[in-house]
Amino acid sequence: MDDRPGIVVTGASGRMGQMLVRTVTASPDARLIAALDRPAHPWIGQDIGTAMGGAPLGVTVTDDPLPAFARAAAVLDFTAPAATVDYTALAAQARLVHVIGTTGLEPEHLERIEAASHHAVIVRAGNMSLGVNLLVKLTQMVAERLGTEFDIEIVEAHHRAKVDAPSGTALMLGQAAAAGRGVDLGTMSDRGRDGITGARRPGAIGFSAIRGGDIVGEHDVIFAGAGERIVLRHIATDRQLFAKGALRAALWGISQPPGQYDMMDVLGLA
After folding, report:
1. Percent of the chain with pLDDT over 70
2. Which residues have CB under 8 Å from 166's CB, separation 6+?
3. What is the arithmetic mean of pLDDT over 10-38?
4. Which of 51, 82, 100, 232 is most buried, judging by how many CB atoms fall within 10 Å of its CB?
5. What does DSSP say about strands 121-124 and 259-261: parallel, antiparallel, or unpaired?
6. Residue extents of the structural domains in the chain
7. How far is CA 203 from CA 137, 169, 186, 206, in A?
């Protein structure tokens, strides 16, 4: 009998979904027990391995999460906000670890996730990579030490199909910069510039988004002062690093008490 923790992957047909499937099936520490997708998707009823263009994996794509959640230890979820909050309620009922990489979450979504975290482990992060989470930590440290005479601009680039902006990672970096300065990002962020905008507001944390091609993910945090600039940068070239981070979070979360965590906790950087 295989006693490795069973993992469910949601949004299995998507870019990240397929990468998560490959990562879990290649892992010696976990096993794929279910692949979920939206109702009426063409992959429903097919073996996930065959649907992805490879060998059968013995896991049929389904749109019904209940049987899958009933026998799983964790669910890896990089879908859309509405789907994620539905999954988080079901995961809480089943006491599963819910790893959330979904971005574009609004306050009402976050409230439902927070409520679910009283009953189960939730690991939520805009980015699951070790490098990005180190960048977040560095951003907060630099922001703590530099005054408002240094302007902060966060520049992010992603593939043409990404639907939300700024990226979840950019917002993580913005939150870190705001925390370093002891301010609220909601009141200090500057996300749109077009036309005659006037001079930059002192202390504002700016965001710029680039979309094009197949860019996996690039993030720069620019601290621009008089006569000098400090640039912190992370470039991702392979989505597998996010998938590996998500699986690591799931395995870590199995031994944790209910609550909401992030990758800083998983990586011991909190």
Report:
1. 100
2. 154, 156, 174, 191, 207, 209
3. 97
4. 100
5. parallel
6. 6-124+239-266, 130-236
7. 20, 20, 13, 9
Say if residue 20 is exposed, middle or buried (CB neighbours under 10 Å; 0-12, 13-18, 19+). buried
Q: Which CATH class is domain 6-124+239-266?
A: alpha beta
Active-site residue flag, 137: no
Give residues with Cβ within 8 angstroms of 7, minimum separation 6.
Answer: 24, 30, 31, 32, 33, 72, 73, 74, 75, 76, 247, 250
SS3 letters for 168-189? HHHHHHHHHHHHHHCCCHHHHE
Q: Rounded to whole angstroms, how far apart are CA atoms 202 and 15?
A: 39
Q: How far is CA 219 from the centre of its chain?
A: 14
Task: Determine the length of the chain.
Answer: 270
Annotated active-site residue in 109, 118, 159, 162: 162
CA-nearest of 210, 206, 171 to 190 is 206
CATH class given for the domain over 130-236: alpha beta
Q: Which of 109, 119, 158, 159 is catalytic?
A: 158
- Rounded to whole angstroms, the Cα distance separating 43 from 233 reads 38
158 is catalytic: yes
Q: Which amino acid appears at position 145 of this protein?
A: R
Spatial separation of the C-alpha atoms in residues 186 and 169, rounded to whole Å: 16
Taking only the tens place, the pLDDT of each residue in 58-69 is: 999 999 999 999
